[in-house]
Amino acid sequence: MTPDLKVVIAGVEFSNPLMTASGCCGYGEELSEIFPLSKLGGLVTKSITLHPRLGHPTPRTAETSCGMLNAIGLANVGVDKFIAEKIPFLARQKTKIIVNVAGSTIKEYVEVCARLNDCEPIDMVELNISCPNVDEGGMEFGADPKMTEKSIRAVKKVFQRPLIAKLSPNVTSIVEIAQAAEQGGADVLSLINSLVGTAIDIDTWQPRLTNNKGGLTGPAIKPIALAMVDAVYSHCKLPIIGIGGIASAADVVEFMLCGATAVEIGTALFIQPDIPVKIAKDLKTYLKDKKLTSITNLIGKVRKYK
Amino acid sequence: MTKIISEDIFIVKKRNLKNDYYSLVLKPFSKIENCQPGQFVHLRIPSASIFFRRAFSLADTNAEKGTIEIIFKVFGRGTRILSSFRKSDYLNVLGPLGVPFKLPDKKEKVLIAAGGIGLPPLLYLVAEMVKKGYNPETIEFFYGGKTAADIIERNRIKKMKVNFHPVTEDGSFGEKGLITTPMEEMILENKAEKMKIYSCGPEGMLKAVNELGLKYGIEGQISLEAPMPCGIGLCLGCVVPLVKGGHARVCCDGPVFDIGEVVL
Ligand SMILES: Cc1cc2nc3c(=O)[nH]c(=O)nc-3n(C[C@H](O)[C@H](O)[C@H](O)COP(=O)(O)OP(=O)(O)OC[C@H]3O[C@@H](n4cnc5c(N)ncnc54)[C@H](O)[C@@H]3O)c2cc1C
Ligand SMILES: Cc1cc2nc3c(=O)[nH]c(=O)nc-3n(C[C@H](O)[C@H](O)[C@H](O)COP(=O)(O)O)c2cc1C
Ligand code: FES
């Protein structure tokens, strides 16, 4: 019997636990040139904002040890163009569609999500709360439990399908933020977004990113992400989507053992764009070797030392 | 069937072109039929210290043999490691990527403007044109470098029977100076003729070539470079501003752009 990779999150069924991470596959068109998107459990779009954004000037990416820094600056086509030009393609794909939403005020999040609510092909929205709140002096929504709860509650009023809160790791206690998201009515938690970091060119003495700092992603952040998933799983009831440095089936297994129901793959797509196909295959082999019939048997089963 | 593949292929020939320039011929590349001049491949360099792939223009392809060629100069960590690879080693190649050059009309005079390691895609372009029956005598091949050491593959260029115009900044080989000077002279001498420019090279040179095209109303294309984390349009790290506004991704909306299209 071939092991079952199917997972269910907030009532939505995914053919496997593998999704793309926001900002790492645009709106899906390019990746579909590499492999059929039906091989993915789900696809998470680049963050969508109310108005189009060009993002920061280049250089806005830099290579680091086992990872990268980016300060793309939420470049995206804006919600109207997204719905008009990108949704028709996404609607034809046999995979679950999750739209990531960013904003700089609660009003903006609400407005974007209200429009997405009328858009039938969208299965879920993922709220990127690692954004500066202009109404609160630029402090990140996701850095403060109250702002987290408030923004999620506001969006829940206008978006009727499952809502994922994507948590920032750049906080004192991610558990506290996770609980605030739960309180606000989030259906799912995804973690982690990128870690603040920078790199300097020692010839010019300038940062390697025009934004002076950026977000660290890739294999370098996996141990941190894993520990955060583990901590949140122990303190929250919501299903978790694990994110951070995933590049192999072994990585996926680790995240699921720590409590993730599914995962998102980001930076690894840049190095090996067809990696989700290989991971799905390797996961089946792993489950067979372990004599498991369903991948859900892994969720939260880490055997911790007493 | 997808147009792009990532696969491990073998180095079947390695040439040291001296002064830190190398040529690698790899096979069997299963998307060889899709390859066109101006496109590039993204190579994974298997080393713990190299995270991103590195982009290399196709310098030639051979459909019968299933081979692709890249030519590179040792520049930094990645290309240093790449230069230590040998025949029979394999590399993971992602490609073919990017938008190719648009071929000119057969009646047009063609001005090739290659600068330094911008040579490879233009070698492929000219080889393809010659193969397709373009008259090599209508192709003016300007090729600039800092010194004589930077003018590689001279015999290969001469064998294509194009009009070869080497230029070096120090005058150690060919004319002394920058290629835009003899190019401008050529343009002025042939004002009546319809021409096309094709260029790849350092940013300063591309800027000058772009301006030359705009000044004399000559159409053409330039091939750009940018840091490319993914090479296939996923990350938005490689963008350039467009004259009409907005951004284009160098990896998949380019690397070949029309003269006058991008803000340089
Ligand atoms: C379309 C295209 C075609 C090219 N064709 C050729 C060719 O035919 N021949 C040739 O010799 N060179 C070519 N190059 C340039 C080649 O890719 C560079 O020489 C190479 O990236 C330098 O790598 P390195 O590892 O030697 O240098 P490094 O010093 O390691 O890299 C230079 C710096 O750039 C950073 N960097 C490298 N790659 C990336 C990336 N993808 N994204 C962000 N930062 C990065 C590194 O971290 C480092 O800081 C091409 C580049 C492009 C974009
Ligand atoms: C180039 C790039 C762009 C990203 N853009 C977004 C974005 O727009 N919205 C968002 O919520 N996360 C964004 N992320 C973060 C990823 O979705 C993910 O949380 C992070 O990269 C960690 O996963 P990874 O290590 O697998 O890449 C981006 C990451 C990268 C590398
Ligand atoms: S290199 Fe990633 S979009 Fe061009």
Characterise this structure.
The complex is a heterodimer of chains A (306) and B (264). Chain A has helices at 79-91, 106-117, 145-158, 174-184, 222-235, 249-257, 268-271, 275-289, and strands spanning 7-9, 12-14, 18-20, 42-44, 61-64, 67-70, 96-101, 124-128, 132-133, 139-140, 163-166, 188-191, 195-197, 200-201, 206-207, 214-217, 240-243, 260-265. By secondary structure, chain A is an alpha/beta fold. In chain A, helix 2 (106-117) packs parallel to helix 3, helix 4 packs across helix 5 (222-235) and helix 6 packs across helix 8 (275-289). The model of chain A has no long low-confidence stretch (mean pLDDT 96). Chain B is of the alpha/beta class and 264 residues long. Chain B has two domains: 5-97, Elongation Factor Tu (Ef-tu), domain 3 (Beta Barrel); 109-258, Nucleotide-binding domain of ferredoxin-NADP reductase (FNR) module (Rossmann fold). Chain B has helices at residues 77-82, 119-131, 154-159, 180-189, 203-216, and strands at residues 5-16, 21-27, 40-44, 54-57, 60-62, 67-73, 90-97, 109-115, 139-145, 163-168, 175-176, 195-200, 219-223, 239-241, 247-249, 256-258. The N and C termini of chain B lie far apart (36 Å). Bound molecules: flavin-adenine dinucleotide, flavin mononucleotide and FE2/S2 (inorganic) cluster.
